[in-house]
């Protein structure tokens, strides 16, 4: 591993080090590059922020006002019933009006 | 692994007649937090309940009915990403050729192209879970090549390990890292262009 890394190599290693420990010399080369390259330093911070944003997206609770649309509910109920599930207690209420 | 919604109640014997009234909305919201469109989320809920019905004889009551349904839904979400990652013209072990590559961001010597210099983010201190932040990330994820979007979601949303993702998508470790790197480069750039960078603020 050369002590001087390119930005391409550095940004790739930034992704890897978040998951796997880097070999000592590679980690040292990465630290050296980050010490003198403000662009890659900025990338490292922003890459971590993106990972945190994605995690927040997974854990956030969508508002309870967001409900399964009635048409989809009816369709799913019909499919379940056709597959052998007993009818839901309020299936008649949800039944399409014709 | 990504956390599932915290159970609010436990049930004893599963009651398929109650699944939709009791859990339909919650399952839908969970699916919608993972996929970009309502139609796909509806399909995932339907598939989950049908699979649960099929698997009902094997339900041992080790988890609550609700937890069990969410586990089936999460498996369906992962399968959805796997289908998404399948490219019609290349094998799964090949990195999708469309979308930006390293050459988009770095010059021949491996250093940042001037036009691609990362800018300071003006909204770096903004709430990470703010609606507009989440919308921006969602829009940028949709712009990724399908295979990259799938790998990104499995890694950073579903929090699967690299080994698990390689196994699910039949990727080599080397290709996995190429995809993660390209996805992050593209997302970073996209967020910068759409609200986070200095230029977007000007």
How does this model look, in words?
The complex is a heterodimer of chains A (98) and B (202). With 98 residues, chain A is mainly α. Chain A has five helices and no strands. Chain A has helices at residues 7-17, 24-36, 38-59, 70-82, 91-94. The longest helix of chain A has 22 residues, at 38-59. Chain A starts with 6 loop residues before the first helix and ends with a helix. Chain B is mainly α. Chain B has nine helices and no strands. Classes of the chains: A mainly alpha (98), B mainly alpha (202). Chains A and B meet through helix 1, helix 3 and helix 4 of A and helix 1, helix 2, helix 5, helix 6 and helix 8 of B.
Characteristics of this structure?
heterodimer, A: 98 residues, mainly alpha, 5 helices, 64% helix, disordered C terminus, B: 202 residues, 9 helices, elongated
Strand content of chain B: under 5%
Largest chain-chain contact?
Answer: A-B, 51 and 60 residues
Query: What is the ordering of alpha helices and beta strands of chain A?
Result: HHHHH
Low-pLDDT stretches of chain B: 6-11, 88-93
Shape of chain B: elongated
CA-to-CA gap between the ends of chain A? 73 Å
Give the overall silhouette of chain A. Answer: elongated
Helix-strand sequence of chain B? HHHHHHHHH
Summing up helix and strand content along with how strands pair, one would put the structural category of chain B as mainly alpha
Whole-angstrom Rg of chain A = 26 Å
Strand content of chain A: under 5%
Give Rg of chain B in angstroms: 20 Å
Low-confidence stretches of chain A: 94-98
Report how far the terminal alpha carbons of chain B are from each other: 39 Å
Share of helix among residues of chain B?
55-70%
- The helical percent of chain A reads 55-70%
| Number of continuous helical runs of chain B | 9
Number of helical segments with 4 or more residues of chain A? 5
Number of strands of chain B: 0
